[in-house]
């Protein structure tokens, strides 16, 4: 192929690609629609209405740490520089952290026992958000959905009593989005 023919072919392809970009660009500006919402916060705020009530009523959701959460007498030291110790006896804690309906999510009791509570609550809250958006029933699930999860403080593995097949996925933050998908 001669050079002028190559240039002509390249220009046609550039025009075609520019046209395709012009067709696709408006879709990139489409708004995002939040169709379902769920949450859990300290102070018993399980759901958007309860959370709003907590805020509107000025509820102090910080309370004393109880021994069913941590052995505070072993962890507390008033010195903020004491290594490996807490210098406060209070925290904002989510209620019912130990409750989880594993069979509902087709998770065995053994696996659920080794799951970070963040994973258990994330599954429940995601299900609640899907139901809130009208997508709870299996025949009403959307086909094109993105799952994005933000996780922090994954120290649950430090509490592991034994190493088993469930520990890796139970304490790994990277599996959250996959569990929901």
Radius of gyration, in Å, reads 25 Å
Main sheet summary: 2 strands, antiparallel
Report helical residue fraction: 25-40%
**Molecular shape:** elongated
Mean pLDDT, rounded to whole units? Answer: 83
Query: Which spans have pLDDT < 50 for at least 5 consecutive residues?
Result: none
Determine the structural class based on helices, strands and strand pairing: mainly alpha
Strand order of the largest sheet: 1-2
Number of DSSP helices?
Answer: 7
Encode the helix/strand succession as letters. Answer: HEEHEHEHHHH
* Percentage of β-strand residues: under 5%
Q: Give the strand tally.
A: 4
Summarize the structure.
With 181 residues, the protein is mainly alpha-helical. It has helices spanning 3-28, 48-56, 72-75, 109-113, 117-132, 167-171, 176-180, and strands at residues 40-41, 45-46, 63-64, 90-91.
Notable characteristics:
mainly alpha, two-stranded antiparallel ribbon, 7 helices, 4 strands, elongated
Q: What is the element layout, followed by pairings?
A:
Layout: H1 3-28, E1 40-41, E2 45-46, H2 48-56, E3 63-64, H3 72-75, E4 90-91, H4 109-113, H5 117-132, H6 167-171, H7 176-180
Antiparallel strand pairs: 1-2, 3-4
Overview of this protein structure:
- With 181 residues, the protein is mainly alpha-helical.
- The protein has two domains: 62 residues, no CATH class; 86 residues, no CATH class.
- The chain is built from seven helices and four strands; from the N terminus they run αββαβαβαααα.
- The strands form two sheets. A two-stranded antiparallel ribbon has the order 1-2. Strands 3-4 form a two-stranded antiparallel ribbon.
- The longest helix has 26 residues.
- The protein starts with a helix and ends with a helix.
- 9% of the residues are buried.
